[in-house]
UniProtKB/TrEMBL annotation, chain A:
This is 2-oxoisovalerate dehydrogenase subunit alpha. Gene3D superfamilies: 3.40.50.970. It comes from the Eukaryota. It is an enzyme of class 1 (oxidoreductase). GO terms for molecular function: branched-chain 2-oxo acid dehydrogenase activity; metal ion binding. GO terms for biological process: branched-chain amino acid catabolic process. Its cofactor is thiamine diphosphate. It catalyses: N(6)-[(R)-lipoyl]-L-lysyl-[protein] + 3-methyl-2-oxobutanoate + H(+) = N(6)-[(R)-S(8)-2-methylpropanoyldihydrolipoyl]-L-lysyl-[protein] + CO2. The branched-chain alpha-keto dehydrogenase complex catalyzes the overall conversion of alpha-keto acids to acyl-CoA and CO(2). It contains multiple copies of three enzymatic components: branched-chain alpha-keto acid decarboxylase (E1), lipoamide acyltransferase (E2) and lipoamide dehydrogenase (E3).
TrEMBL record, chain B:
Together with BCKDHA forms the heterotetrameric E1 subunit of the mitochondrial branched-chain alpha-ketoacid dehydrogenase (BCKD) complex. The BCKD complex catalyzes the multi-step oxidative decarboxylation of alpha-ketoacids derived from the branched-chain amino-acids valine, leucine and isoleucine producing CO2 and acyl-CoA which is subsequently utilized to produce energy. The E1 subunit catalyzes the first step with the decarboxylation of the alpha-ketoacid forming an enzyme-product intermediate. This is 2-oxoisovalerate dehydrogenase subunit beta, mitochondrial. GO terms for molecular function: branched-chain 2-oxo acid dehydrogenase activity. Its EC number is 1.2.4.4. It comes from Diatraea saccharalis. Heterotetramer of 2 alpha/BCKDHA and 2 beta chains/BCKDHB that forms the branched-chain alpha-keto acid decarboxylase (E1) component of the BCKD complex. The branched-chain alpha-ketoacid dehydrogenase is a large complex composed of three major building blocks E1, E2 and E3. It is organized around E2, a 24-meric cubic core composed of DBT, to which are associated 6 to 12 copies of E1, and approximately 6 copies of the dehydrogenase E3, a DLD dimer. Keywords: Mitochondrion, Oxidoreductase, Transit peptide. The keyword Repeat does not apply. Its cofactor is thiamine diphosphate. The keyword Transit peptide applies.
Length: 432, 368
């Protein structure tokens, strides 16, 4: 966060934070006479003019981008050096995700699954960040980051099985749809309460940094709404004071359900909370996968080389409804969405980039969309046939070992089902 | 709001005090038994529970110029639409969105009440009330006591949708009443439908102590009743006997009341016994007198709630009943509840204290 341009600032090397608190109209004389206040809580120059800072005291954090809206690289020096295969993999993941979202959203409408959330408009954040990380880096996600999971190698089958909560869901049908998790892919299982993952990610990063020869960092995804929770502040403060190798990646998509960012926060977005708390901070165009890639790659370097926590605010737009329980026409005009579905669509932008590089063409694209759709439809048909996990798994995993009191409850239910089993949909569950 | 119609009072059967026998199947797990006795003479209108709550808040905003209503997504009506149209009617400074922060919502509400105004705070789901636990348990509940009565925050009412909906899983299904019932200074209230929702919410809003109003969300749209359009309150701390009987006392609150009303019907048909059904309505303080008088009469008691068994509010009832009614009891007090696990998604039909589990237990209780 830079002080507004043209402002004269003290050059006191030792005092970084203090610079921000200075009067923007300090005279050079004041500089010479300035004494430095040395308090345990702050070391900063004394001034004799009282001045309150405001939003306007700072320039907004600029939005870093590599591609323009036609998918053209704006400054050749900024184009990341990513091999063709990786670039295509990123694109294919975006397409797979958008097609899966379409079909799964529809399937909820048809009553096949109970709930769903789409990722439209944020695919670039997912693949840009995932490609810049190592598969061993630990992911703490919110829910609208499914592209990260796909990029890491979670299959459409695993995702669809979770949404059906069937016997192949690693979460054993216990959570609502979209609450994925995979030990194998270093993705910590999602939970619905917002922002709880944020201080947890910081703690995980702390533990990793203590591992000898650590080469892993943690990335934590969260929304502009979640950033208002107390846990978000705790996470930033802990990350900075405990020097944790963590990347805090905010998906700022303009809305938290119906609440626009204007009612979520004042000041310069979520990014404004980074640097003053001691996190390296950047803001990027989240519709540009290459910009996200560059920012996350650089953040990862800092996190691992210096145990520096980094905050990245990726700007995007939530193109879909919040979830299948939401109808966003109740609070935003349909026209507002158009731009984000067309010129600012991350998929379109990235496809144009690939075409310009000669890596992709229309025929490949048509085939890819078709293949992506077919994969989901076929997977759904299979998932639908699978039974739910055995009902007793309802009472397993509450503890490592089932305590006697829960054992007793299993027994009670068994006894009850002996006489009343016909009143329960037992055929939906796998036999033990 | 639906067109206003006058209430058509149907003849009540002898056993059913104010509950309609013409019930409606809502989901796999219960049938809704509407109230058909208005607590107030005069004009009524058909409302579902969401509309009845909306109506209570509308009356509050109209009659109390200090009242404000806020929470996540409340401006457009809230995710369950209970505040629908109220911002348009009363303005953005009275009905508004807050940032996404439950501890902030509760603390802000306490502040509004401390300054002498009326606060209706909405927590989007009861499952997300826990970041506000500190503000409610350590602050709201103890404000009167620690200030010697100087700074009470009775102007605060916190509303939160709770309980099972069929597909809510771990974090859209919980019934957290017992956590708060362990907190002297708070009042905890749960309606069973539109009529009780309106009367109890208006009581909470006007109560001199902070109240937590838990709204069983499955009832928002599906439960319809003829609700008086005028202002009325129902007393906090009073239970209602919904069905009289002599063989056993069945106690529940919220959605589970309807499950037990059906169990009572089944007990009559299948076992030819008359059981008494009590809606506790108010968890804290709770109506010891109504409950114990009933159990002394019937000698048998079954308590049912959706929340897990261990340390659920049924435990408090059972302990008190054994103490107060010991010599009248013909059998140990029974509890039929959710199991001691988090609330599971695909296992919900086997997790809930279904009418079959309640009936099964009732048979054992009667045979004891
Ligand atoms: C603690 C908590 N409070 C409320 C909710 C309900 N809720 C679910 S998602 C959501 C909005 C989140 O918005 P944001 O963080 O911006 O993410 P987005 O959905 O826009 O991706 C809310 C309020 C919740 N899940 N957890």
């Amino acid at each position: 966060m830079a002080l507004k341009c043209g402002v004269r600032v003290f050059k006191l090397n030792t005092i970084r934070q203090a610079v921000r608190l200075l009067s923007t109209h300090s005279s050079p004389e004041a500089v010479q006479n300035a004494k430095v206040g040395d308090f345990p809580g702050a070391r900063a120059p004394y001034v004799t003019e009282l001045k309150f800072l405001s939003e306007a005291s700072y320039d907004p954090i600029p939005i870093y981008r590599v591609l323009d809206h036609n998918g053209q690289v704006i400054d050749g020096r900024e184009e990341p050096n990513i091999d063709k295969e990786t670039l295509l993999n990123m694109y294919k993941t975006m397409v797979q995700l958008s097609q899966m979202d379409k079909i799964m959203y529809e399937s909820q409408r048809q009553g096949r699954i109970s709930f769903y959330m789409t990722n439209y408009g944020e695919e670039g954040i997912h693949v840009g960040s995932a490609a810049a990380l190592s598969p061993s880096d630990l992911v703490f996600a919110q829910y609208r980051e499914v592209g990260v999971l796909l990029y890491r190698g979670m299959t459409v089958t695993e995702i669809v099985n979770q949404c059906y909560g069937n016997c192949e869901d690693p979460g054993r049908g216990r959570q609502m749809p979209v609450h994925y998790g995979s030990k194998q892919h270093n993705i910590v299982t999602l939970s619905s309460p917002l922002a709880t993952q944020m201080p947890q990610a910081v703690g995980a990063a702390y533990a990793l940094k203590r591992v000898p020869n650590n080469d892993r960092c943690v990335i934590c995804y969260f929304g502009d709404g979640a950033a208002s929770e107390g846990d978000a502040h705790a996470a930033f403060n802990f990350a900075a004071t405990l020097d944790c190798p963590v990347i805090m990646l905010c998906r700022n998509n303009g809305y938290a359900i119906s609440t626009p960012t204007r009612e979520q926060y004042r000041g310069d977005g979520v990014g404004a909370r980074g640097a003053p708390l001691g996190l390296r901070t950047a803001r990027v165009d989240g519709t540009d996968p290459l910009a996200v890639y560059r920012a996350v790659a650089a953040a990862r370097g800092r996190a691992l080389a210096h145990n520096q926590p980094v905050l990245i605010e990726a700007m995007a737009y939530r193109v879909g409804h919040h979830s299948t329980s939401d109808d966003s026409t109740a609070y935003r005009p349909a026209e507002e969405i158009h731009k984000w579905n067309s010129e600012e669509s991350p998929i379109r932008k990235f496809r144009q980039y690939l075409e310009q590089k000669g890596y992709w063409d229309v025929e490949s694209d048509e085939a890819l969309f078709k293949e992506a759709r077919n994969r989901v439809v076929k997977t759904m048909q299979e998932a639908e046939k699978k039974k739910l996990p055995p009902w007793k798994e309802m009472l397993e995993d509450v503890y490592y070992e089932m305590p006697p009191r829960i054992q007793k409850q299993v027994k009670q239910m068994e006894d009850h089902l002996k006489n009343y089993g016909e009143h329960y949909p037992l055929d939906k569950y796998q036999p033990e | 709001m639906n067109a206003l119609t006058t209430q058509n009072v149907s003849t009540l059967t002898k056993l059913v005090k104010c509950v309609n026998a013409y019930s409606k199947r809502l989901s796999s797990h219960f049938i809704y038994f509407p109230d058909n006795e208005a607590p107030l003479e005069g004009e009524t209108s058909k409302m579902n529970m969401m509309q009845a709550i909306n109506n209570a808040m509308d009356l509050t905003l109209k009659n109390d110029p200090t009242a404000v209503l806020f929470g996540e997504d409340v401006a457009f009506g809230g995710v369950f639409r209970c505040a629908l149209g109220l911002q348009e009617k009363y303005g953005k400074d009275r009905v508004f969105n807050t940032p996404l922060c439950e501890q902030g919502i509760a603390g802000f509400g306490i502040g509004v009440a401390t300054a002498g105004a009326t606060a209706i705070a909405e927590i989007q789901f009861a499952d997300y009330i826990f970041p506000a636990f500190d503000q409610l348990v350590n602050e709201a509940a103890k404000a009167r006591y620690r200030s010697g009565g100087q700074f009470p925050c009775g102007g605060l009412t916190v509303r939160a949708p709770c309980s099972a909906v069929g597909h809510g899983g771990l974090y859209h299904s919980q019934s957290p009443e017992a956590y708060f019932a362990h907190t002297p200074g708070l009042k905890v209230v749960i309606p069973r439908g539109p009529i009780t929702a309106k009367g109890l919410l208006l009581s909470c809003v006007r109560d001199r102590d902070p109240c937590l109003f838990l709204e069983p969300k499955i009832l928002y749209r599906s439960a319809n009743e003829m609700v008086p359009v005028d202002d009325y309150t129902l007393p906090i701390g009073k239970a209602q006997v919904l069905r009289e009987g002599d063989a056993a006392t069945l106690i529940a609150w919220g959605t589970q009341v309807h499950v037990l009303l059906e169990v009572a019907q089944m007990a009559k048909e299948k076992l030819n016994v008359n059981v008494e059904v009590i809606d506790l309505m108010s968890i804290l303080p709770w109506d010891e007198e109504t409950v114990c008088n009933s159990v002394k009469k019937t000698g048998r008691c079954l308590i049912s709630h959706e929340a897990p068994l261990t340390s659920g509010f049924g435990a408090e009832l059972a302990a008190t009943i054994q103490e107060e009614c010991f010599l009248h009891l013909e059998a140990p007090v029974s509890r039929v509840t959710g199991w001691d696990s988090p609330f599971p998604h695909v296992f919900e039909p086997l997790y809930l204290p279904t009418k079959w589990r309640c009936l099964d237990q009732l048979e054992k209780l009667l045979r004891y």
